[in-house]
Amino acid sequence: MRKTIQIMACGLLVSGLFAPVTARASEGVVPYGDIGKHWAKAAIIRGVKAGLFTAGAGIDRFYPEREMTRAEFLALVDRLYEQGQLHLYPLTFLSEHEEYGQGEGFDEPYLPYADVDRLTWMYDPILRVSVLLERLYGPGAIQQVFPGKELHPDQPITREEAAKLLQMYAMGADGEQSWQNITAAGWMDGRPEEKLKRGEAAVVADRLLASMQGDLLLPLLDYNGQKFPTVPEIRELFPLFATYTNQMTKDEETFVHAVEAIRSHEDSEQTFADLKRLAASTFDNRIGVHYYLSWDPGTPLSENLDQAFSAIDAYFADKIILPDTLRLLCANVYDIALQMGAEDPAVYGRVLERLGSYEPKVRQGSEEWQSLAVYLAALEAKSGKTEEALVRYRSFADKKPEALLNAVYYLVEANRLDEAETWLASPDISEATEAVQQLARLLSQELAVLKQQPSLVTDLAHTLKRMDNKDGYIVHGESVLRGFLLKYTQEVDQRDQIGHTFGIFQSPQQLVLDKWESYTDGRKNVQYERDFERGTWEKSSVKEPEFLHEWVDDISIAERARTLHARYYKQSLGRYEVITEWIPGPALAERVKHRSFGAGTVKQIPVYMTKYYIDRDTDLLVQRVWRYEEIYDTQEYVAYAGKETYAFPYEVHVRIPDEAVKGATR
Amino acid sequence: MKRMITGLLAAVLTAVSVPVQAEEQPFAETAEVFQYVLDNHLSKPTAKQLVQGALSHVSEEAGRQAHLTLKPSADDDTLPEMEQRLAEWQRAARLDETALNRWAIDGMLATLDDPHTMFFTRDDLQMFEAGVENQFVGFGFRLRMQDGLLVIRDIVPQSPAAASELRKGDQLLTVDGKSLKGKSFEEAFAMLRGEENSEAVLTIYRPSEKREKQVRLKRAAVTMPEVEGDLFEGGAIGYVSLATFGSEAAVQLRDKLDQLSRIRPLKGLILDLRDNSGGYLSTARDVASLFMEEGLLMYTTNRNGVEVETWVRNGRDVGYPVRILVNEGTASASELVAGALRDHGIAVLVGTKTYGKGSAQQIIPLSNGDALKLTLHEYFTPKRTVVNHVGLEPDLAVEDYAAQVVEALRSLDVQAYRLTEENGDTVINGIAFPTVDPLFKRENGQWLVRAAVLSRLLGDSAVGEQDYVPIAPYLQRYKTLVLQQNNDQPVLVYTAAKPAASR
Predict the structure, then answer these.
(1) Looking at chain A from residue 155 to 174, which residues have their Cβ under 8 Å from any Cβ of chain B?
(2) Which among A194, A414, A442, B184 is most buried, taking Cβ atoms within 10 Å?
(3) Could you tell me if A276 and A159 lie in one domain?
């Protein structure tokens, strides 16, 4: 039963996925010969460890006093992004293909500069940064940092240019004020027109990385409805719960082998048979034996849960205070509860009661109590007792960042933004631990951003309305739906409600592209589709929505915000306002649970996000990017991602040709 | 109006059925190939054509190899019918499944009239890919036939030969005790060939030391450089040759060009694509990007009439004229690059008509590890020149291998020439070209020279392009033509007139 869980649990329990992939620069070794006495030495060494700078054979100098070139800084931004790309994923939804500059299958992206050649070291990193900027800030975004036909990649970068590039990591930042945003964040100082030296750039990266490891860019954002209640990160999922030397008894050896097997996913029935034998014997590592028996995929979840509780019983029987161990044991209980809760939500209440029975055994407010309380609160939240959860989280929010984060989240959920704001500014928090204070600052910023949400909803609705009021528009799109690659142009005549779509597509079962053309008559609700094979047209009526996203398309922005818990966030580098919209899956699934689409009934919506790019001068939508993932009761997983750009020519007049209307075969 | 697109997509999407491939069926591979070819091949073959082709070929082979009479039926025209028929034959004649599959596949592919659509076994595929990467299993030397002797012309760096005491110029006498004397090039090649890691003992004769030596060598996978090149002596004209369009070719070419330009800013370049049979499309684009900042590389069309443009982006412009040497061995990606650079006015093609492979293939892995190389697209140059089955006509037509180089240099307004021979190569301004026929001959006490080379050198068509002509009369006629002797080797030196106006 827990075989699959084991794999999933790694994702669930280890929420801090941001441990950087470190280049192996061993402690104490200075990787370059010219930084020994340099003031930025520590930052440079940390940068090497974080994989930001290359050191090793053949590279013996860092040149900390040399000015950093534009190309070097862009490469640094590329590596920073790689380090923390999960931070930006909710804002980019870039697929791996797109990230590596391959596009989704048709047009490959390229740089708008004549002096950066594809066969140079700098090309790939600069292209990746350009793709990233374009996704975040709209068409040609890199030109807003480095305008002109040439990039001058070997020219030193100024602090202001660097600030514009780093702005993506600053919450609520606006392109007009990049410099203020970045200096306010404490990442950079000096004067904007000053050049940035390599040593200084290392320090900037170091500060940024430190703040990225603190928390997500938008800590309260729950784009897929899976984040809250959030629980602490568990670093070691498979400890031995005891120290063993080389001289082990037979039983100890059996135990250690079993743990090894489970850790490396090589456990078998024998592994758990051995553990059961140990459980029945006088083997003294009772915590370990019960903990690992709870991983048995061969027993029902309820038995796994019993074993998980037996491990906690054993912990208290030992009478040794080990808060980290208790936290792991509680995490384990919580994890099993999550697995069971998917089928039977009532399980949360029962597990809460059972776990709550241990509360009298620990001293209120102690580390040990916190280990327990964070899961009690999570179970309260899961079982609908949000108010109790809030009280519990708030009781130790000054000590644990997770508690603070959850508390603010549930306050916001209850529309108590002002209360959250006041609380964050109160001595409760301002006298808390440094980690809590750092998070509190981020949360205050995010609350300010959240307060702007109603105006974003109005702005976006206004822009979309302007689009609807136009006589027509032209769409150029590229998308992937159910594995089909599509590239199309669409002429939309809104006065006559007629659309003409033509383009090419590639089926996942084929290696070559096919043509595609159709007309839609919105008044008569009919569609004429061309059959290129036979040279004929086919008429059909416009059907009910095949997929969930078609249904969502018809829901106004205001309603999405009001009833679907949609969240909106704005970014800009100057030319475009980019509004990102996230609709959390659970709320959406709940809303459509009785509705049947062509593809079936929606069971789960792992991702539902859209980006709208609005031209600041014309207030018109110029581009839209989306990624929707829908899982239907038919077990079908439908992914739909793509990009459309919009043009508004003076006149769009579309007529359905006679040959289509008259020649239609049915 | 917004929803229009998605509604339509649904219609498109449901129209396509998913072919199911059952792994366990005895003719799964035949079925797989059938489906790929039927759905994707440029020629849009019919099911009947493929089925009939498969069955008639199986029947032929069974008759030829097993003396069996299997009669194909003209009614069989679907995949299930083919599978049924094959199963029936297999039962009746107890034929081997692998052979049957192979015959059926060969039969289907034969109906396409397309030599570039091929079935590859795992080993074939490996060899094909190695070939594209200019990689071979061997000792790591290149040979030439010289006066009936096999002479080492070149040693590949980082190969077993490079690590041994073999040297350029050594004559190969025996391999594992078997004499190579009087063997043709092909026979010798067959005798030298062997499995990776196998060993052989070679006997060589080294003329400079006047002695024989025995050398023990292991065969290894040797990667030959994709790019070789140098500056022509006495000027700023570069020469680079590209062996194939393997995955490293563009980067190697970039490095070579950068290296040459560092010695001296180039005033012209000869890019040798003779006998370059192509390779990867992405490499072709990267190679083109070394000559143009931006521009159309080609159009491709497929069976559905969909035309797609492939562009070169973020390349670099060359600031000097380029000549591309082409011949009938210049094929595929080579033709693509030559055609595009010509259409954009970047290069002039010198040599003979190219091969004419204007189609593009994709390698499709089959479920059991074999693969299918399948023609999906035809391509056209930016000016829509058809390449397939036709080839590109050179701008400057020259038949002779060495004369092609001379003509290219002349067209780049090179004035000073120095032509000589070294180990049977024709050396033109310091760069050696492996020519089949010698540059000079001695007859009745006087020196003759290949007519085509002299004709191109002097720009004098009256010399003709046939065989050899005596040099002496031309020394009289052309004051700047001089015949020197260097260690008994003739050296032809010529200074062309200054061009009226530089191009």
Answers:
(1) none
(2) A442
(3) no
How far apart are the C-alpha atoms of A336 and A341, rounded to whole Å? Answer: 8
Q: In this structure, are A626 and A551 located in the same domain?
A: yes
Q: Are residues B470 and B489 in the same domain?
A: yes
**What span, in angstroms and rounded, lies between the C-alpha atoms of A569 and A136?**
11
CATH number for the domain that contains residue B243: 3.90.226.10
- Within a domain: residue A436? yes
Query: Do B4 and A507 count as a contact with CB atoms less than 8 A apart?
Result: no
| Closest CB from A119, A511, A549 relative to B286 | A119
Residue A483's pLDDT is what? 86
Chain B residue numbers touching A598 (CB-CB < 8 A): 10
pTM value is 0.88
pLDDT, mean of residues B198-222:
90
Closest partner residue to A484 among B4, B13, B364, by Cβ? B13
The whole-number pLDDT of residue B77 equals 92
**What distance in Å separates the CA atoms of residue A318 and residue A306, rounded to the nearest whole number?**
18
* Partners of residue A501 in chain B, C-beta under 8 Å: 4-5, 8
A92 contacts: CB under 8 Å, gap ≥ 6? A85, A132, A135, A136
Does one domain contain both B261 and B189?
no
Q: Give the CA angle between residues B353, B358, B359 to the nearest 5°.
A: 155
Claim to verify: residue A351 and residue A405 sit in the same structural domain: yes
Give per-residue burial for A282-300: e unless 16+ CB within 10 Å, then b: ebebbbbbbbbbbbbeebe
3-state DSSP assignment of residue A52:
coil
Closest listed residue to residue B344, CA positions, set B377, B376, B311: B311
Q: Do A494 and B12 count as a contact with CB atoms less than 8 A apart? A: no
Residue range B262-267: average pLDDT?
Answer: 93
What's the pLDDT at A98? 67
Instruction: Return the residue of B nearest to A111 by Cα.
Output: B314
pLDDT at A107 over 80: no
Residue A28 predicted with pLDDT over 70: no
B377 and B419, same domain (yes or no): no
Question: Is residue B332 located within the same domain as residue B376?
Answer: yes
Shortest Cα distance, chain A CAs vs residue B268, angstroms:
21
B202 and B288 in one domain?
no
Quote the tokens at residue A475: 């769409």
CA distance B209 to chain A (A): 41
Contact B440/B485 with Cβ under 8 angstroms?
no
CB B375 within 8 A of CB B114: yes
pLDDT of residue B235: 82
Q: Which residues of chain A have a CB within 8 Å of the CB of B19?
A: 509
pLDDT band, residue A25 (cuts 50/70/90)? very low
CA B370/CA B31 separation, integer angstroms: 13
Region A187-210 average pLDDT: 92
Q: Looking up tokens 């059938």, which residue turns up?
A: B34
Question: Does residue A5 surpass a pLDDT of 60?
Answer: no
Which B positions 313-342 lie with beta carbon below 8 A of chain A?
313-316
Task: Look at residues A213, A232, A223, A219 and name the one whose alpha carbon lies nearest to residue A15.
Answer: A232
* Number of folded domains that form chain A: 3
Q: Is the pLDDT of residue B54 over 90?
A: yes
Q: Tell me if chain B has a CB within 8 Å of the CB of A475.
A: yes
pLDDT reading at A431 higher than 50: yes
The ipTM (two decimal places) reads 0.85
pLDDT reading at A338 higher than 80: yes
Position A19 pLDDT exceeds 80? no
Domain that holds residue A96: 16-214
Domain count across chain B: 4
pLDDT in tens, A165-182: 999 888 866 767 888 888
CB B394 within 8 A of CB B388: no
Owning domain of residue B181: 138-223
**How far off is chain A from B162, nearest CA to CA, in Å?**
26
% chain A with pLDDT above 70: 92
